[in-house]
Fold:
Amino acid sequence: MIEILMQATSGDEGALPLVAQYGLLAPLLIALWFAYKREASRADRLEVEVQRLNTINTEKTLPAMFQVAEAMGEFSKVATTLQLQQEIDRRVAEEKRKSGGP
Structure:
């Protein structure tokens, strides 16, 4: 690298574009490094947010879903009982009709 700089300052036109190329590469690398750090920081913040949402899901949503499942089980029992009662009422009414009763 020192030889390239020495050639560039000595008036040799062939080395100047090479020095300029490396001189422009440094700011690009610095910009890329800052972009990488910014995105890594963003990814870390998003990971924290995902963890927070998972905690909310675990603490609030899952217990509510278990309560819904219990309620659906109770509803199923009530609906079955109601269906059986309707079937009994239908058969009683049918028997009364067959026997000629009121």
